[in-house]
Write a structure and sequence with these properties.
The chain is α/β, with parallel strands linked by helices. The chain is about 30% helix and about 20% strand. The chain has helices at about 25-30, 50-60, 90-110, 125-135, 185-195, 220-225, 235-245, 260-265, 280-295, and strands at about 15-20, 35-40, 65, 80, 110-120, 135-145, 175-180, 210-215, 250-255, 270-275. It has an eight-stranded mixed beta sheet with strand order 1-10-9-2-5-7-6-8, sandwiched between helices. A two-stranded antiparallel ribbon has the order 3-4. The radius of gyration is 19 Å and the shape is globular. The chain starts with 16 loop residues before the first strand and ends with a helix. The model is unreliable at about 1-10 and about 70-75 (pLDDT under 50).
Length: about 300
Amino acid sequence: MVVQPELQNFTTEPGDADLIHADAFEWLATAEPASIHAVVTDPPYGLVEYQPEQLDKRKNGSGGVWRIPPSFDGAQRNPVPRFTVLTPTEEDGLQQFFSRLAPLLMRVLVPGAHVFIATNPLLSHHVYGPMLEAGFEKRGEIVRIVKTLRGGDRPKGAHEEFPDVSVMPRSGWEPWGLFRKPIEGRVQDNLRQWGVGGLRRISDEQPFWDVITCPPASKAERRIAPHPSLKPQRLMRQLTRAALPLGTGTILDPFMGSGSTVAAARASGLHAIGIEASPEYHAMARRAVPLLTQLQDD
């Protein structure tokens, strides 16, 4: 398997950023059409896990969707959402969420704009279907190779009876759906007109690859931005850089969280807009984005 090489630092001057406290759907409905050149986002693809009562349970360690995985090495482990507990009604709500989101993204994006959208192997069909129905072209998936703690457990309450059985495979990857708004004419025409339509290469010799090996966010990142779903700068800087092939335009993250996408774009010298509905996470992003932007690549 070929794995994308690591990127080096590629800018010295941070880009601009707008951190907006708003509901993403309301903001998208009123934003200027054809004003955004790329979307890179990690949406709340379980939805349930970010409801106030579930976040309270996470903070209190009292169960709910957020569960602390089994410890195999003695290290302290953070809670992760268990999407296998979603009910059919909750999964229908997830489908409706993306059926509402996809047309709004189509409206604000310029022709040829790419959407990088994080998902989960169990739930990606709820994300991809609505994007295709809205008219986006599926351009593949970015496979992030990462050691996770999801899956691999023996049957609950029957560990000793079935010691050689795992209920489901231990997950070792994270999918990012890659979509594109249809281009106008040829790719070269779209690049001249809108500045997008392709993906920025790593170098003259290396194209952008669809397999990226990247560990979870570092301790330093988690101290800066203690968000439950924090994505590492090592990953986000590669995605944001690829999303604007000519290095111009605006990247949008409609579900900003603690601002990892915005910080990565700024570190790449790009302009980004982050939207966050939660007052707590919006305040966290305002504190974290400048500090995450300044982090050096390992």
